[in-house]
Amino acid sequence: MAKTADPLAQYNAKRDFALTDEPAGKVAKGQGTKNGGRFIVQKHDATGLHYDFRIEVDDVLKSWAVTKGPSAKPDDKRLAVRTEDHPMSYADFEGIIPQGQYGGGTIMLWDRGSWAPIAGKSASDIDKGHLHFTLDGTRMKGEWILIRLKPRGNEKRENWLLRKIDDAYAGGSDDLVARELTSVLTGRTMAEIAADEDGAQSLKGKKGQAFNAAMTEAAEHNAKVAKTPGKLARKKKPGGKPPEFRQPQLATLVDDVPTGNGWFHEIKFDGYRALVAASGDDVHVYTRNGKDWTDKFGPLVRHIAALDLPQCLIDGEIVAYGKDGNPDFSSLQEVLKRGHGAQTEATPMHYFAFDLLDLDGTDLTGLGNLERKERLEALLADAAPPIHVADHVIGAGEKLYAAMCAAGQEGIIAKRADAKYAGRRSKAWVKVKCTRRQEFVVIGWKESSAKGRPFSSLLLAQHEGDELVYKGNVGTGFNQAVMDDLADRFAKLARKTPPAEVDKASARKVHWLTPRLVAEIAFAEFTAGGSVRHASYLGLRDDKEAKDVTPEVKQPVPDTPASDVTISSRDRVIFPEAKATKGDLADYYAAIAPVMLPHCANRPISLVRCPQGRAKKCFFQKHDSGSFGDHVKHVPIREKDGGHEDYLYLDDAGGLLACVQMGTIEFHGWDSHVETLERPDRMIFDLDPDEGLCFEEVKKAAADIHQHLADIGLVSFAMLSGGKGVHVVVPLDPGHDWDTHKDFSKRFAEAMSLAEPDRFVATMSKAKRKGKIFIDYLRNQRGSTAVMPYSARARDCAPVAAPVGWDELADIDSAGRWTIADTDELLARAASRDLKGWGFAAQVLPGL
């Protein structure tokens, strides 16, 4: 972009400041620098929605319009069109630019913070067409790069690419623009900002005016129903005290990796187990034994408090990284020894969350491991290092274990996908270690003849029943600082008699200690006499009590849970064109159950049964006929006539298979769970195109609905229906009734139809649907159902209803992209960054 004597001349020339509230362009003398400064991102809904990325350089804001918004996924290269420099005063601007003015539309301050060029670089690199820099904002963090593209033909505008560098802050592409829907300045949504000036302004001209008018009316209606004033939309806000500590679940040591898709696997972190109880900025960190160590982890507590979480209890591990880049227990000990004020960039503490036990006063421990993990990922969608959600893989544990061992890490944890959380040791969580490590009680020390060395070795023991049993010595793994620290501790624990029986040879010249210190020891094996061989000291476990230290004995790998449901007639062809049989369908549901059950378990369901195959007679069934067996449950539900009927629901993989045995292909579910039948917790907009409309039109419609929902502060997710359309799924907290639920969805669909009557229709009338897309909101009334995620469909080639990320939807060519033959790919996708937390979000309807 050409330089001028007045860098803001172009900015001022494009604007009439008598008509717009934008600040007049004045250079902020003395504020500029080439070594970094402020950065902001403004979400700007003008002729098209985009994100204006601006950085402080030489007293002005250098600016780019990023068409799709920034992505935290390194593979995403976002087009960034260079625009005129803006004044520094623009960094706080949020509001409405009147229609007819340059850039007319709504502007939200979407992110802000500081930027800096990486070492050896400066802002002058912009003139060279290449800027490598770091950001420390509310939402954008870590390393980024801007690269100028060569102009094509007579092209006058400067096209650049904005890309995230693959670092600790990189992640799924949807986490930034799809989930971050409110202003960092005022907490408002785009719709709230657009409606702020007497409701006169709009998001997108007449279409936006019509949509906003209808949605404002809906919000006012809902507020009256709730009898409380409300904004257009909001996420769940913190309130109340943090949850109480509860006993954590512990893993059983086994000798091999469990197999099968009924298990998912995580890295076993080498650190301190920690439960985080939070409510807004009130955060407490507890050890596995319930000790309040909040003060010891001050930096982490501040990061968690900044997330402004609702009431929640999170389970995880605190680690520090060693010189080799792996989590290292000794490094964590050193950080803690220096005190929380001594944390440095070289050795920061990190928190890896892996479970969610309580949310907003609701006990989640009765849910399956994988569902809790999905809810955790949704809760911490805004988190950035040093707060992480531990990654996992479904099945394929052997590969992860081999990779961890090759990388010199401790091992893996395997968890039964459908198991509840137990506050004790169980075989629903198992650990497989790469090296032998256990905890021992220190019962004594031997003098050293080496100058300056306080001791030569430590005597170790473990509790076996009521006795403390000697288990040998450890004499390596100490540096001078560790030895001096231990010597200081020993002075306070000295005693005259041995606390355990030790043979005479080993007891010579031993200084005995009261058995209170717990040490973690790595060793090769136990000798025939029960002593550790080739032992190495790793550190003290101040988070564990000596009385709890017992031998850890490897147990056989637990059997992968197998269903007792027998599938008969496995060779019967159910999908003739795909030559897929009843056995194939049963195998699909058995494998996909871990990722399907978090969405469909404990909801009233309707089944599409095709006993002779999809090409023959099929029918719906929603009532319990008593023929499905014990795995399929029933719940009495009140009908319109006041009577009650038993409806079907299921809660495990056996239930899915029992239904398949009875000829079921499809599973459709209510918008509520059986325990909260009258309080819906998800909203579905089913986009049903008229015959002749291409799938591209459906995808565009889904993206537009997604954006309008985002404008009013609602996170939504996309799902291929497996038929010809797309479902837009809006997860909700179950706090409103069915009338409110249906009314909102109806008004939303009608608002879309009113705004663009040539594209959308909100009525089932076939005469009115010609050439249009029907926004089916009728799925959102009591008793209606929608196809469940991962359900097979009774259609050609056995397609399935498949969750997708919003970014990837644009590249998918049909609603039946995946079939029951793609089980492995679907399972791998379910654990991918793009689908983390899919279908879960803590939010309420507008006006409530």
UniProtKB/TrEMBL annotation:
It catalyses: ATP + (deoxyribonucleotide)n-3'-hydroxyl + 5'-phospho-(deoxyribonucleotide)m = (deoxyribonucleotide)n+m + AMP + diphosphate. The keyword Membrane does not apply. Residues 222-246 are annotated as: Disordered. Keywords: ATP-binding, DNA damage, DNA recombination, DNA repair, DNA-binding, DNA-directed DNA polymerase, Exonuclease, Hydrolase, Ligase, Manganese, Metal-binding, Multifunctional enzyme, Nuclease, Nucleotide-binding, Nucleotidyltransferase, Transferase. Its cofactor is Mn(2+). The keyword ATP-binding applies. GO terms for molecular function: ATP binding; DNA binding; DNA ligase (ATP) activity; DNA-directed DNA polymerase activity; exonuclease activity; metal ion binding. It is an enzyme of class 6 (ligase). InterPro entries: DNA_ligase_ATP-dep_C, DNA_ligase_ATP-dep_cent, LigD_ligase_dom, LigD_PE_domain, LigD_pol_dom, NA-bd_OB-fold, NHEJ_ligase_prk, NHEJ_LigD. Pfam families: DNA_ligase_A_C, DNA_ligase_A_M, LigD_N, LigD_Prim-Pol. One of its GO terms (biological process) is DNA recombination. Its EC number is 6.5.1.1. Residues 342-433 form the ATP-dependent DNA ligase family profile domain. This is DNA ligase (ATP). It comes from Flavisphingopyxis soli. The gene is ligD.
